[in-house]
Amino acid sequence: MLYLVRMDVNIPHDLPQEQAQEIKAREKAYSQDLQRDGRWKHIWRVAGEYANYSVFDVESNDELHGLLQALPLFPYMKISVTPLAQHPSAIAQN
Ligand SMILES: O=C(O)CC1=CCC(=O)O1
């Protein structure tokens, strides 16, 4: 199942810089592991915002929730999820 996910990041200004950098490094490693195993299919920066649009390919809502909840930046993100279905006019099956 495919999901379009928007993540808006909002790290509090009073979080120490070193701690913020450490969380971002863990976020990157976690994200890249999921990209390598195929469950995090796309990640795109929203131009001009500290936000991304991502596409996940997972088995269920529960699996997606588990992956999102484990994001190191999860406490500092607003996340919205849109389930995707096939469009009848699409020439490629995703
Ligand atoms: O910078 C972001 O958009 C948040 C994020 C998600 C995965 C990652 O590496 O950074």
Automatic annotation (TrEMBL):
Gene Ontology biological process terms from the UniProt entry: beta-ketoadipate pathway
Gene Ontology molecular functions: muconolactone delta-isomerase activity
Limits of the Muconolactone isomerase domain: 1-89
InterPro entries referenced in this protein's UniProt entry, alphabetically: Dimeric_a/b-barrel, MLI_dom, Muconolactone_d_Isoase
Protein EC: 5.3.3.4
Pfam families documented for this protein: MIase (PF02426)
Catalytic activity annotation: (S)-muconolactone = (4,5-dihydro-5-oxofuran-2-yl)-acetate
Pathway: Aromatic compound metabolism; beta-ketoadipate pathway; 5-oxo-4,5-dihydro-2-furylacetate from catechol: step 3/3
Enzyme class (EC, first level): isomerase
Keywords in alphabetical order: Aromatic hydrocarbons catabolism, Isomerase
Transmembrane regions: none
Keyword presence, Isomerase: yes
Membership in a protein family: Belongs to the muconolactone Delta-isomerase family.
NCBIfam families linked to this entry: muco_delta
Subunit structure of this chain's protein: Homodecamer.
Protein name per Swiss-Prot or TrEMBL: Muconolactone Delta-isomerase
Organism: Comamonas koreensis
Gene from which this protein is expressed: catC
